[in-house]
Amino acid sequence: MRNTRSLALMAMLTAVSLIVFVIEAQIPPIVPIPGVKLGIANMITLTAMLILGRREAGVILLLRIVMGSFFAGGVSGLMFSIAGGTLAYLIMCLTLKLFPEKMLWVVSIFGAIAHNAGQLAVAIAITKTSGLIVYVPVLAASAIVTGAFTGLGAMYVSSALRRLDKQY
Predict the structure, then answer these.
(1) Rounded distance, CA 58 to CA 61, Å?
(2) At what angle do helices 54-68 and 42-51 cross, to 10 degrees?
(3) With helix as H, strand as E and coil as C, how does the chain read?
(4) Using CA atoms in the order 150, 43, 98, 140, what is the torsion angle rounded to 10 degrees?
(5) What is the pTM of this model?
(6) Are 117 and 151 a contacting pair, CB within 8 Å?
(7) How far is CA 151 from CA 44, 85, 117, 124, 126, in A?
(8) CB distance 147 to 109 below 8 Å
(9) For residues 25-54, b (16+ Cβ closer than 10 Å) or e, as one string?
């Protein structure tokens, strides 16, 4: 059974990830290519993996995806988010064991690539247009940049939360 402190932290991280997701959905695209965005809410998923564990991070991610679709995505947004989020989560769970915490940015890059692959697969399935595969190089390049950014951010947030925990 979870203790109260862990449950409260899960609730806080879920709320923060949802807020970040909704705010980021309001920001105009940086580049005019569908699917390219920072994915800042993923910082919270990675932080939860480090601080709470993989299972708890999965719960936080699922709650953010479902609630985020109500606030900022709709049904199509839910399909893309579930596909990308699930694939990213699975890849990050697998790669988190392979790299030390100081290389969390690498885990995040793998997660970002998987997220883009999941969303591209949904786009191809919906449109029945295999030609969308031409986006792979651009999506991979953007995943490297955004994944490194969110991974570094998650390293910072995790470190800050641990310092706070030691104080209290």
Answers:
(1) 5
(2) 150
(3) CCCHHHHHHHHHHHHHHHHHHHHHHHCCCCCCCCCCCCCCCHHHHHHHHHHCCHHHHHHHHHHHHHHHHHHHHHHHHHHHHHHHHHHHHHHHHHHHCCCCHHHHHHHHHHHHHHHHHHHHHHHHHHHCCHHHHHHHHHHHHHHHHHHHHHHHHHHHHHHHHHHHHHHC
(4) -40
(5) 0.90
(6) no
(7) 10, 15, 18, 28, 30
(8) yes
(9) eeeeeeeeeebbebbbbbbbbbbbbbbbeb
Alpha carbon separation from 45 to 78, 118, 119 (Å, rounded): 17, 17, 18
Handedness of CA 105, 107, 109, 111 (dihedral sign): negative
Whose CA is closest to 32, among 103, 130, 138? 138
Burial environment of residue 108 by CB neighbours within 10 A (0 to 12, 13 to 18, 19 or more): buried
pLDDT (0 to 100) of residue 54: 95
Rounded Cα–Cα distance for residues 72 and 77 (Å): 8
Q: Taking 90 as the threshold, does the pLDDT of residue 31 lie above it?
A: no
Give residue 49's identity as a one-letter amino acid code.
M
Read off the pLDDT band of 2 (50, 70, 90): low
